[in-house]
Automatic annotation (TrEMBL):
Belongs to the PPR family. P subfamily. Coiled coil: none annotated. Keywords: Repeat. This is Pentatricopeptide repeat-containing protein At3g04130, mitochondrial. Pfam families: PPR, PPR_1, PPR_2, PPR_3. InterPro entries: PPR_rpt, TPR-like_helical_dom_sf. It comes from Ziziphus jujuba (Chinese jujube). PPR repeats lie at residues 196-226, 230-264, 265-299, 300-334, 335-370, 371-405, 443-477. The keyword Hydrolase does not apply.
Length: 508
């Protein structure tokens, strides 16, 4: 999860008043810089925010500020090498990792900062940094540069692992170049890697996940004469056939698996169970459960949890709760994810007290600890049933317990409840807690919820402030959000704001 910078926590938000020109705004967006207001005291919907002396920028912020969108990788390198501030920065692997994450959708900047770091005396990239950069290049369809980087790694004797090869193969397959993924496998021995079962499984898994199951099958029939398959090989095909909706082949693969002396495991059967669950064919699901028992491969907690989740989703609440009882009756021990699903099913069924009983009594009795999702499920249930006070109390208990920390999803139903009931003060406090106490950043869903809710509550100034903050955090708004806010600010005669929103809409 991306954290707010200290500037944002201290109130330096991307809030542009009418005195700031649109041209300045446009330049700021393109340079991804945070524009601070010159006034020393701002009135914000979150309270009065005072500006102190500007804190020193982090090394990450300095580098990011120097990298301009659209620059070539060589221009990025030159800019950073020639900059006096960047020359003073001590390049560490942590800094490089954070920069590569920051530029995961901008291959030119990612490659530029990678080369800049490489040029610094005494610094050497880790194998993971190379793998991350290869993945970024492949993700952005820069296949020639990806292969060029791989060749450079080989020439310079940088370690090339199966993980490296897997990333390259998957990016080829994701770009629709599955033949190149196969060619990559054919050449693994040139990188000092063996063409063994593990390498074959990586190729087959890559192809199956790209829906090229038939091609994977043909390649397997050739390779199995030289490379022995294992249980994982066949599980890959079971998953692949289910993915392309050919469950009969998945069943047949289980028989083939047995013919090769590999015993089907719970994963083999559970994959087919999930296939039937996704199609809400619960008759077939129960048949598979019986077959698993007959084959001496009883379902595990993951199998039962999957079935319960889909029964709940289809509003078959009684059957979902019966699955929970069936699991307990066969001696299968519950885990945290099972209890999360059970609490959700009880909440959806309107059995709030029973859900509380599971959370407060049964989980501790079975020594199963809650996680953030457990608390999130309980809080969402309380909010759904109009028990916001209990939801807030549980949030407090969560914070005090120290067992786990709240995330954005913890707050989402609470924020939604505040908007529903017009509790603006509570909304401000929750947002303040998220940002200042827990250092959480808002995701696109939360920004969208707040902006739409505040517009409905006739508080479009606050909604617009959040919109600007959203842009400043590099979170791209949805078009319908822009459209709604655009109409609202125009109605309030906020014409400068309308111009800026219109500019963002054109860029979407």
């Amino acid at each position: 999860m991306v954290l707010y910078s200290k500037k944002c926590i201290n109130g330096i938000r991307f809030l542009l008043d009418s005195s700031v020109s649109c041209t300045h705004f446009h330049a700021s967006c393109e340079n991804r810089s945070i524009l601070a207001l010159s006034s020393s005291n701002l009135s914000s919907p979150l309270g009065s925010l005072h500006y102190e002396e500007e804190e020193k920028l982090s090394d990450l912020d300095v580098v990011v500020a120097k990298v301009r969108l659209g620059s070539s990788d060589s221009e990025v390198v030159k800019c950073l090498v020639d900059d006096p501030q960047c020359q003073k920065i001590k390049v560490t692997q942590d800094l490089v990792d954070r920069l590569l994450r920051r530029f995961k959708d901008d291959w030119k900047s990612a490659l530029g900062v990678f080369k800049w770091a490489e040029s610094r005396s005494g610094f050497k990239h880790t194998p993971n940094a190379y793998d991350v950069l290869l993945d970024v290049l492949g993700k952005m369809k820069q296949m020639d540069k990806m292969m060029g980087m791989l060749g450079e790694m080989h020439r310079d004797s940088h370690p090339i692992t199966l993980n490296t090869v897997a990333k390259v193969m998957r990016r080829f397959a994701g770009a629709g170049k599955w033949e190149d993924a196969v060619r990559m496998f054919d050449e693994v021995d040139a990188y000092g890697l063996a063409k063994n079962t593990e390498a074959m499984n990586l190729l087959l898994d890559t192809l199956c996940k790209s829906n090229k199951v038939e091609q994977a099958r043909e390649i397997f029939l050739e390779l199995k004469q030289h490379i022995s398959p294992n249980a994982h090989t066949f599980n890959i095909f079971i998953h692949g056939w289910c993915k392309v909706n050919r469950v009969d082949e998945a069943h047949w693969t289980i028989q083939e698996m047995k013919g090769h002396g590999c015993r089907p495991c719970v994963i083999s059967y559970s994959t087919i169970v999930e296939f039937y669950c996704r199609r809400y064919n619960f008759g077939k699901v129960y048949e598979m459960l019986d077959e698993m028992q007959a084959q001496g491969c009883p379902p595990n907690v993951v199998t039962f949890t999957t079935i319960m989740c889909f029964l709940t989703k289809s509003e078959e609440f009684e059957e979902a709760l019966q699955i929970a009882e069936r699991m307990k009756s066969v001696g299968c021990s519950p885990d945290t994810l099972f209890y999360n699903a059970l609490i959700h099913a009880l909440g959806r069924a309107g059995q709030v007290q029973e859900a509380i009983q599971v959370f407060e009594v049964e989980m501790p009795m079975c020594s199963v600890p809650p996680n953030t999702s457990t608390y999130n499920t309980m809080i969402a249930m309380f909010c759904h049933h109009g028990q916001s006070r209990k939801a807030l109390d549980l949030l407090t208990k969560m914070e005090i317990s120290g067992v786990c920390k709240p995330d954005v999803q913890t707050y989402y139903p609470l924020l939604k409840a505040c908007l529903r009931y017009g509790q603006v003060d509570s909304l401000s406090k929750l947002l303040d807690d998220m940002i200042r106490r827990h250092h959480l950043s808002l995701d696109i869903s939360t920004y969208t919820l707040l902006i739409h809710g505040l517009c409905r509550a006739n508080k479009c100034e606050w909604a617009y402030h959040l919109f600007e903050e959203m842009i400043g955090q590099d979170v791209k708004p949805r078009y319908q959000t822009c459209r709604l806010l655009f109409d609202e600010v125009k109605e309030k005669h906020m014409y400068d704001a309308a111009d800026r929103i219109e500019y963002v809409m054109k860029k979407l």
